[in-house]
Amino acid sequence: MKKEDKIKVVEEFVGVFREPGFYLMDFKGLNVAEITELRSLLRQSNVSMRVVKNTLARRALAEAGITDIDDFFVGPTGVVWSPEDSILPVKVLIDFLKKHEKGTIKAGMVDGVLVKEDDMTRLSKLPGKQELYAQIASALNSPLVKLAQTLNAVPLKFVRTIDALAKKDSPEAA
């Protein structure tokens, strides 16, 4: 690899390592078809994966000012990240690894905090960004719906009372 190419790769990964969340995957044991399937699943979820040389990754980490995770760049390592959601990549990876039982997630960085392999399953159970947006929208919408129902109930009750009085006073009711 030419020096210019190495510089470009390091610059690219400095940007990746500054994302809110990225994960390191050891893909040993996966065959070409399984890696292709993984990349397809990641692409469908708008998640990126790239294999990088460990020395270039360590340089990019140093330039990004991250020191906690550089020890995990040993052996074949794929870097997985999403610019939209820091939890989504680990969800996709955990689902894939449960199905294939090959490969591992070495570690990850979420909002500047090192997440080791032991905590990945718990992390994958957290709601993603879109799910949180839906929960917030629901929580904000619920009081408004109840207020509208309450405000609507007052005139409706009044109309029903008038209707009942009219039926009571009508000659047909007697």
What is the CATH domain class of the largest domain? Alpha Beta
CATH topology of the largest domain: Alpha-Beta Plaits
Kindly, what is the distance between the CA atoms of the first and last residues, rounded to a whole number of angstroms?
A: 100 Å
Strand content: 5-15%
User: Measured on Cα atoms, how large is the radius of gyration?
Assistant: 28 Å
User: What's the SSE pattern?
Assistant: HEHEHEHEEHH
- The number of distinct structural domains comes to 2
CATH-wise, what's the superfamily of the largest domain?
Ribosomal protein L10, N-terminal RNA-binding domain
Explain what you see.
The protein is of the alpha+beta class and 174 residues long. The protein has two domains: 3-126, 2-Layer Sandwich (Alpha-Beta Plaits); 131-173. The chain is built from six helices and five strands. It has helices at 3-17, 32-44, 54-64, 88-100, 120-124, 129-169; strands spanning 21-26, 48-51, 78-81, 104-110, 113-116. It has a five-stranded antiparallel sheet with strand order 2-3-1-4-5, with helices on one face. A hairpin with a 2-residue loop joins strand 4 (104-110) and strand 5. Helix 2 (32-44) runs antiparallel to helix 4. The longest helix has 41 residues, at 129-169. The N and C termini lie far apart (100 Å).
